[in-house]
Amino acid sequence: MSTLHFLSLPTTEVATGLLGMFLVHETADGVTAGRIVETEAYLWGDPACHAYRRKTARNATMFGPPGFAYVYQIYGLHYCVNVVTGPEGVGEAVLIRALEPVEGIPLMQARRGTTKLGDLCKGPGRLVQAMGINKAMNGMSITEPPFQVVPATAYPAANTSFRMVTTTRIGITQGADLPYRFYVEGSPFVSFPLRKVTGEKK
DNA sequence: GCTGGGATCGCCT
DNA sequence: GGCGATCCCAGCG
Known about the structure:
This protein is an alpha+beta fold.
């Protein structure tokens, strides 16, 4: 199954399936890559979803076809990156919340201003900074270079089995009880391991 | 045309 | 664990 085909699956399947896959960004400064260890799904009809009310200039990317990056600014100073899912016309996406640093760690350290491995990509704003993602990348394809999601098979050394934990999402007020957050059990790179756990599988 | 709130982070205690 | 930084835009008028 191609990456684009995978990203065309229902949003919660994409959110869970992205765990263990890799996010790769090639820039003039070098390549950075990380294993996705934490995601959140934002669905149609979900009050926490940016596309809940209607299509606007800010959330327009979410209404486009799947396989593109939705980058937005939060709290005036941080950025978050999502993978757009759902068919064109439907505003759904998966927020990437944490990565395990895999490639280009010195570059991540320089961008983040810290050498501590556990602080490089733990949290949506941090991973955006570590990967060199910026708001100009809103609407960019996330299935081909220089910015792409790649299957775990691309990094066999880091392709280890894991169990998935399902919890409620972080930092939202609307839809706070919905079980749409997923992470790799036991990973030290997950942003908030302790949270209301609603399920576990895989 | 104004106002308030938000899918966060880092520094302080 | 608490709080300040700081900006885009939706909602209302």
